[in-house]
Design goal:
By secondary structure, the chain is mostly helical. It has helices at 3-32, 43-73, 109-136, 142-147, 160-164, 177-185, 202-217, 225-254, 265-283, 290-310, 319-331, 346-362, and strands at residues 82-85, 95-99, 171-173, 368-370. Strands 1-2 form a two-stranded antiparallel sheet.
């Protein structure tokens, strides 16, 4: 084995180790409020954090190796997964996921479809199994009292604690259809955690985040997994139409309420030009000329601004703004045409529409909020 291959394998391994450590530290914080670097942090806290990091990384790994093995089966050269660690600081989940890099030009629409579908389909199966286990084995109510003794006075209505202490900082999840199904048909209703306390339940939180990453990858845009699936199902022409529509809708929704006429004038005078520049650069992914791109940015901003004037409570999820920019400037909205565009067989068509169902039940308009 040559030195370059050894360095490459060490890079993959090193990134995985760093990601395992950062997600475990994040798990310690989410589960018991302990973080690395604090004087009271111990090995027991690190071990506790693995209840979050191990299942979360397992699902991410299954997802990426779904892509990897499908690519290798189709004789497409690809790298092993590159894991992306985040700094082990409070409120961060420890990772931005993992990616593989395709090293060959893919000539077939069918191969694009197979590689794009394999990852989210494999990861989704494991995430659902984890959530089923987590909701079938919820700890007793006393579990949350060990973390928050102040809730005990409120019994199972401890959510009222938030109503009386609205200055508290909390992480709240936005439930998707899969989570609602498990809460209503699998779990003991008396043991279901409050959305503000969901992060203390590592199997549930890891499963929820896995579904979030699944939905993110299945966005029907560009060369995301969902873009590959959409391209395989409907071809380049309809892919462009659907992807552009979805991209504009995501950009519009995410910016709702971000700029409001009710803000002070001294804020608006610099917020507006910065936000306009953001819209312009994100919309460059549509590959229009500068004048048309600016017109689209002005239209989106004007409608958002008018809606905020008449309905100040109408707000989108600002977290999607970053993803809109990444897609618009780096991932791309369109999908390149393959030289071979053979139609998909019935089995693949069924799996493709199943991927759409997976996207719908895994997607949450506001996945996480800090209040």
């Amino acid at each position: 084995m040559d030195n370059n291959k050894i360095k490459t394998y060490l890079t993959h391994l090193g990134l995985f180790i760093f990601t395992f450590i950062s997600t475990t530290f994040s798990g310690s914080f989410f589960i018991k409020g302990k973080m690395w670097g604090w004087t009271e942090y111990s090995w027991a806290d690190f071990s506790e954090g693995m209840k979050y990091s191990v299942p979360f990384l397992l699902i991410l790994t299954v997802h990426e190796f779904g892509h990897y093995f499908t690519a290798r089966y189709n004789k497409v050269k690809t790298t092993l997964p590159y894991y992306i660690p985040l700094p082990p600081i409070p409120m961060l989940i420890g990772t931005m996921g993992a990616v593989i890099r395709i090293k060959d030009f893919i000539k077939s629409k069918k191969v694009h479809f197979d590689i794009g579908l394999a990852g989210p389909l494999a990861g989704f199966v494991v995430a659902i199994a984890l959530l089923f286990y987590g909701y079938s084995n919820l700890p007793p109510v006393e579990y949350i009292y060990e973390i928050h003794p102040e809730y005990e006075a409120y019994g199972t209505d401890y959510a009222d604690y938030y109503a009386e202490n609205d200055s508290l900082i909390s992480i709240k999840i936005g439930k998707n259809l899969a989570i609602l199904f498990f809460e209503n048909y699998v779990a003991d209703a008396e043991l279901v955690p409050h959305p503000n306390e969901f992060v203390h339940y590592p199997y549930l939180f890891a499963g929820f985040l896995a579904l979030f990453f699944t939905a993110l990858n299945l966005l029907p845009i560009g060369q995301l997994d969902g873009g590959h699936v959409l391209y395989g199902l409907v071809g380049a022409k309809w892919h462009s139409r659907v992807a552009v529509t979805f991209f504009l809708a995501m950009l519009f929704y995410s910016g709702l309420g971000y700029i409001s006429p009710h803000q002070p004038y001294d804020e608006l005078i610099w917020h507006v030009p910065i936000y306009m520049a953001f819209l312009y650069f994100a919309l460059k992914g549509l590959k229009m000329n500068s004048q048309t791109t600016l017109m689209y940015a002005l239209i989106i901003f004007s409608v958002q601004f008018m809606l905020a004037l008449y309905n100040p409570a109408l707000k989108g999820f600002e977290g999607w703004l970053l993803f809109s920019l990444i897609i618009g400037r780096f991932v791309g909205v369109y999908h390149p045409k393959s030289p071979i565009e053979e139609p998909l067989d019935l089995k693949r068509q069924i799996l493709g529409w199943l991927a759409l169902v997976i996207f719908i039940i895994s997607f949450s308009p506001v996945p996480l909020s800090i209040g």
